Amino acid sequence: MLSFIMRRFLTAIPTLLVIVTISFFLIRLAPGGPFDLERPLEAKVMENLNRIYQLDKPLIQQYWLYLSAVMHGDFGPSFILRDFSVGELFARGLPISMTLGALAITLAILVGGTLGTIAALRQNSLADYIVTGLGAMGLTIPNFVVAPVLQIVLGLALAWLPVAGWADGSPRNLVMPVIVLALPQIAVVARMTRAAMIENLRSNHIRTLRSLGLPWHVIVTHALRGASLPVISYLGPAAAALLTGSVVVETIFGLPGIGRYFVEGALNRDYTLVMGTVVVVAVFVLIFNLVVDILYAVVDPRIRFD
Amino acid sequence: MAEGAALPIETLADPVSGRSLWVEARGRLLNNKAAVASIVLLGFIAIACIFGPLVTGHPFDQVYPDYVKVPASLEAYPKADQITPQIERIGARVRGKPENIQVKGDNVTVTLVGQRPIDERLLAYFERSDMFGAAKIAEKTDEGKRIVVDVPLKKKYFLFGTDTNGRDLLTRTMKAGQISLAIGLLATFVAILIGVAYGATSGYLGGRADLIMMRVVDVIYSLPFIFFVIMLVVFFGRNFILMFIAVGAVEWLDMARIVRGQTLSIKRQEYVQAAEALGVETKGIIRRHVIPNTLGPVVVYMTLLVPKVILLESFLSFLGLGVQEPNTSLGVLISEGAKNIQGATWMLLYPSLTLIAILFCLNFIGDGLRDALDPKDR
Amino acid sequence: MADPVLTVRNLNVRFRTGDGILHAVKGIDLDVNAGETVAIVGESGSGKSQTMMSVMGLLASNGWAEGSVKYRGDELVGLSPDKLNRYRGSKLTMIFQEPMTSLDPLYRIGEQLALPLTTHGGLSKAEARRRAIELLELVRIPDPQRRIDSYPHEMSGGQRQRVMIAMALANNPDVLIADEPTTALDVTVQARILELLADLQKRLGMSIVFITHDLGIVRRFADRTYVMKRGEVVESGATSDIFAAPKHPYTQMLIDAEPRGTKEPAPAGSPLVLDARDVKVSFVLKSNLFGQPTHVLNAVDGVSLSVRAGETVGVVGESGSGKSTLGRAVLRLQSASGMVRFEDRNLMPLDRAGMRPLRRHLQLVFQDPFGSLSPRMTAGEIVTEGLLVHEPRISRRDRDRRAAQAFEEVRLEPGWRNRFPHEFSGGQRQRIAIARAMILHPKLVVLDEPTSALDRSVQKEIVELLRDLQKAHGLAYVFISHDLAVVRALSDEIMVMKNGKVVERGSAEEIFERPREDYTRDLIAAAFLKERGVAAPTPATLAS
Fold first, then answer.
1. For C296, phi and psi rounded to 5 degrees?
2. What is the pLDDT of residues A73-100, one digit of tens each?
3. Which of A123, A211, A225 sits opposite C106 (nearest CB)?
4. What is the C-alpha to C-alpha distance for residues C236 and C70, in angstroms, rounded to an integer?
5. C367 and C456: one domain?
6. Confidence of residue C530 (pLDDT cuts 50, 70, 90)
7. Assembly ipTM
8. How far is C21 from chain B (nearest CA, A)?
9. What is the reported pTM?
10. Mind spelling out the 3-state secondary structure of C255-273?
11. What is the nearest CA distance from B199 to chain C, expressed in angstroms?
């Protein structure tokens, strides 16, 4: 298994390299630059800035410089938030985004899994229709609608929770962002669990267990293990996306996570910030794909590590 | 069989017509109440969005400065309590103090009392207001210092209320629906076109070509999607048609994977092998066997991709990267609504309901199609 | 007879389907006595499986049972799953047709075997493991100490069915219901599983209910037999009586449907149609980084085959023996090495385009009549597809006429040619597939298990149709099958294949009367196992 992980890491490196390369040249080819302000800077100032940030060198040389810096864990200075390096920004924002994401994904697994299982066991009952209906709502109502509605209802009308803010991760401040993040995931997990459970409960090996007169909980356990496989493979990329922050949720709730950096960085041509975010997201995706593969192999003995 | 043994013409003339899988699928879809209701509702929304702006009586970009942020109402504007302040405002301009304001049906009679004779040309202020028609002088006394004017009310309906600029939200919602649906269809069309061609080619060629083509898909897949879309915005600026062609060009990845998988499994089917044994050329196999049999999942995926793209558009609009004023889309309206949620809930409510209704319908139709085209219970 | 374990009275099973309510079992009565073997025989759709599924409370969620099923006087119909679990798995157990999927792929077989032991027998984990090893020994799994920790995918189909039997026997049941337990297995494995069941019954003394379509199994094992047709029991009684003097015409028909007879030899001096020499097909299972193969499967390993006009060569063997690959290789649908000549032409140097004009002479009929017809084309379009390639000039109307003729020739109603494949039964679909091959007037037809997916009575019709077509058009057949009864009824020459090689070949008579290889003898014994208990397999009884 160790060699499997090693091998996966080795194959991930070229993928990462391709992503970094494509992103690097894409953002560089985009019109405009980081110092294009409303009022153009003096040519002399511009020249100086370009020299300081090494933007005056040929693009290919900049690319090599960036690559070697990233290898050493240096993401460079941010262009718009000039007092900070990209690394510092991540060091502050990433823990916040990850806390929110981890809570949301946990909530999604627990609530979604339970709802999906109930719906599958009581197929075509009222409970099933309610779960399917809620699932459809969770999937279709955009989070930028849910978030303000929650703010109005829970934050202003009932005044149970603070409307926005991080407040050093106070649990009361976490509730609403986590719910908004988790809702669509709950819907997807419930839906997938339901479909997979129904398929599993109809399968021949569950019929065998029933023919052997085994109690209900044994049958459900067996069906759940089989049904977890598609959910696991969905959760990998979903977890990676959640842990790296959500623009919408962080904007609406005023949270200092890293989700906003993508948009801000790209729009302001903050090359290093965008590249840093790309690298972080890609690394998360690769790690979680690996986690999925390992989990999959643990659950399903038919998958071999070689 | 010898040629002489040709069959009597009667048996040839009237073969029993069969029920194709499409016909059966249509039957199953029509039995699915949620799907049928969704098709009807979506059809209604689409027709309303396309033709609605012609009948609401408000151009989508018409600004009514007197009706900024008025709430949704089934009754006509102006409301009784709006008339007096408005007349007072006009009175101030006309330099006449309004007295004895009387509303009778669609007419208001008001007496203007000025310190000096009132300039009748200034009465045009009534017509310039969004609430009134041309004022007529009914009585003139006191050397023109005191005039009684009859002003017809201009009745206006704002069923969804108006926005922060005083534009009719119903018309804007319809216009937005038009654009959102158009964008959804456009991007989906592009995605399907590329995806089907790429996937079918990759799957049918197989071997090394397939390996390389799918590796390309994998790499593009692992690029962060939001980054990609934002870069597209940056490149194409605010030309949303171009942008959504580009979004379609990103969204084809899933389609390519689905079609490739489908093609691979169809290729292994015995009916394709049978066609090969008959000597049918690759072209014929793809046309007669591969494409008709991949169509089911493609149609299903298409109905599920449209809401995805619409949602993506709203997301971009929410970030302020979407359609530009005075054009609008559901995402733009929702994002404005979210900013004005206090005091103007209707601005969030109606566009959101429209968007959710469209998404719900498309999802139910997609699910219904999937069940109808791929019935596992049989 | 006086000791009924299981009594079924007026049992009805219904299913709610999209097209209304399906009455699958219509008020049947049935008894199983202690220690006896009862067979329920019938064709697909006769309701034989659903009868026993309802006894076990395993009907699909859209089905329900009415009537009475009593186990030693206790009513089972209408019991809640909890109450039913007092009987299921301990008193009444069941094994199924699909050994490949009946075990949970995610658990070791030891864990699965322990479940009924700990649940019903109250054993501890360690005791259950010890008992599980004993059970594996009982069902003759080699090396049970090690195999108990295997996963299902590490075992063959036959071994998995043995594990299923072990699970069913774990708590010494009174009744074992076996639903087509060998249908999905290779013939020689089938025979061994059946022997095991017979032997276990002798040792453990339980009753066995065999649900089967195979009269051979019935005749060999069952004390009493119920014949079912469309949800009703049409005949029941002692097996020997039923076979000696069937009363119901349906039973008679089933017994007659056993393929019989032999083929008349082809006329002397008929021309050689196909001559294949030293055909080799290999598949690369694994290759190293540089694309060089490291593991190669020789699916077909130097096989020669020649067929004359009007002649049938039967190719028999178990699954994986390479017989289907050989069939595809001689038609050049599979890349191969060696030499293949059709009439006077060497096919090997021809590419796809070069083969195309010859395709009309070389046709193929598949096993699966459900998979071999494109689901979105009408039967008429399917049948005439070859005409588009080989006679592109003929008009649409002529094509339609040719389709109608082809339908007549395979004895299908020509008026049905606008229907779609799913509107036909299995036998009718196979006729469409045959019509598709015949419309081009081919010279050689490779028949790849054309009857294996069909009910016996339908098989017989297809065999007769193929025989008649051969006679009428002087066709050369390569007949690939694992079913020796059908092969015998159709073939002049027979090749027995194993692991890609021909282990024995000769005339049909030689192979069946004087088999030289053990493998051939096994195949024959397995195929004609009905004869063992009654009489030795002599050509006289077979040919009738």
1. -125, 135
2. 888 888 777 778 888 888 888 999 999 9
3. A225
4. 19
5. yes
6. very low
7. 0.79
8. 14
9. 0.80
10. HHCCCCCCCCCCCCCCCEE
11. 20
